[in-house]
Amino acid sequence: MSDAAKAKRDSRIRRHARVRKQVRGTAARPRLAVFRSNRHLVAQVIDDLNGQTLVAASTHEPSLRGGPTANVDAAGQVGTLVAERAKAAGIDRVVFDRGGFRYHGRIAAVADAARAAGLEF
């Protein structure tokens, strides 16, 4: 990893630490955490008090791997899928954790799709 890439990654991790100081997931209102890589996107609904991932969806899944996995449309599909799974698990309200990424593009697409599918945050 080059020095520039390392600095960029470290900056994101510092931003995420600042976000995580404020955002905590509980059993009543878990945290919807989003991670974005160059090729894939992962969304997890996490109960931080018990340290458990309650629901997850990602572009690694066979149903989403057919097409492109690193665009806004794929992110929207992940947001819809994680919201449907959360609703099935009895979760209606979450807090959104953008993971130190800008609320823009794929991150915003996950949030918008999850809201449209019925999650409240």
What does this structure look like?
This protein is α+β, with helices and mostly antiparallel strands. It has a single domain, classed as Nucleotidyltransferase, domain 5. The protein is built from three helices and four strands. The chain has helices at residues 3-22, 72-88, 106-116; strands spanning 31-36, 41-47, 52-58, 95-97. A four-stranded mixed β-sheet has the order 3-2-1-4. Helix 2 (72-88) runs parallel beside helix 3. The longest helix is centred in the N-terminal third of the chain and has 20 residues, at 3-22. The radius of gyration is 14 Å and the shape is globular. The mean pLDDT is 96.
What is the topological layout?
Layout: H1 3-22, E1 31-36, E2 41-47, E3 52-58, H2 72-88, E4 95-97, H3 106-116
Parallel strand pairs: 1-4
Antiparallel strand pairs: 1-2, 2-3
Helix pairs in contact: 2-3
What's the domain count? Answer: 1
Order of helices and strands: HEEEHEH
Question: Tally the helices: what do you get?
Answer: 3
Task: Tell me the CATH topology.
Answer: Nucleotidyltransferase, domain 5
Provide the spatial order of strands within the biggest beta sheet: 3-2-1-4
Shape: globular
DSSP strand count? 4
Radius of gyration: 14 Å
What separation lies between the terminal Cα atoms?
Answer: 36 Å
The assigned structural class equals alpha+beta
Which CATH top level class fits?
Alpha Beta
